[in-house]
Amino acid sequence: MATDSCYLGIDVGSSGVKVMLVRSDGGPLGVASAGYETSYPHPGHVEQNQDDWYRATCLAVREVLGKNRVAPENIGGIGLSGTSHVPSMLDEHYRLVRPGILWNDIRSEAQVRRLEEEAGDLIVSLTGNSINCTWSLAQLAWVREHESEAFRRTRHVLFSKDYLAYRLTGELAADHSSAVSSLLVEADSLEWNRELRDLAGLASDMVPPIHPSTAVIGELTPAAASDLGLPLRVPVVIGMLDSAAELVGVGATEPSVAVIRLGTAGGVMTLTDGPKWRRGCMLYPHPVRPQWYYQAGTNAATISLQWVMSLLGMSTDGGYSELDGFVAQVPPGANGLLFHPYLIGERAPYWSSRIRGGFSGVTINHGRAAFLRAVQEGVAYSLRDCTSLLDWDGVSDIRLCGGGARSASWCRIIADVLGLPVHQMRQQDASALGAALAAVAGCTRADLRKLAQAGVTESVRIEPDPMNRDVYDSGYRKYRALADQYLKTFDEAL
Predict the structure, then answer these.
(1) 242 in active site
(2) What's the pLDDT at 494?
């Protein structure tokens, strides 16, 4: 049984909570998870009950402590990370007014168009980001217009995982990255901006104080300590967005390192030295200040694979070995079968909630293995779309993380499609690890950059196969041509 101080990183993901247990030097000891439901009350509406985050957290914390035989009194602190942009609206009694609207919800199209027309230039100049359905500003505008009674009852608004921070500590707080994900923060000052708050209809006392990612915001309340099975007075560190935590978890603290995430959504991230708008990209503050990072995202990465595997009666519960075996049966290019992963619209480079994708080039000779390979290649093509929006000067190291990076075939395909060497990281639960490292840094005053760099585990370097270059360049040209047709057909027809 561990006797030294250990730390917990809690990551609120799109489908469940992951909890990482680490030593005081940041070395991982174990991980546990617990899921929750996502609701789709209307077409294009995607919601979660934020109290489910808390219940799942309690289950996962107890599990990880039990599995690793760590006494509760040895927990020295907790750090948080979570999926971006989700607003939690609380009434005067600090109760939730309505479920949280997720980042892939597209109900706010009309509000986005109006805000773009009325204040698009202002939003870009203040935030370094363009308005779209992903941002909390648009979601709050929708609630204000369509659920006026719920909006009227709202007294406090939290963003991303900060509702979980409130349930754990009783404190209303935000970190720089979760606050920026609201689109209500001025990039230069990293403070709430009055003009942006006015666009959302929020008064100054409705948003919380903003802290650095390693700030201790409070201690566990008696109720939270009891629910988690932990002692009183365990400090809680505010943490960061999941994408920021992934950067920390894989040691991406310098501009020479780029990160590709294969999670529910996919994304490509590169670091930059200041908050400058970049077309088609999202911009967030890096936990290691004063750096920032760009993210070009694709909406449906592992969710595309899980969808098609479910249709084919398959599961990844036992790992990716069976999937990799099937994919290996089909040559690069999937025998002409193409897949566009626009199952829930698309972000970069199209930023269209209406675009739809699918399979093309299907023949009677295509079997299960071809469809699986086509999905992995289609997501890789979408990531190549993302890379085209970013500046790769000075990048010498590309690190793959996220659940999908457990698939050896997928990592190989990404290297070949991009034509770039990549590192398949051994530590795949990067967000939870990044949150745990924030807990260590915040509670022990250790340097977060040094912890992140020291915590990088072994990786597998994958070189692109030059024999596959022509087939994937040709496939990408077809992919782009069809993507333009999908955009024209669905974006204009609806």
Answers:
(1) yes
(2) 46
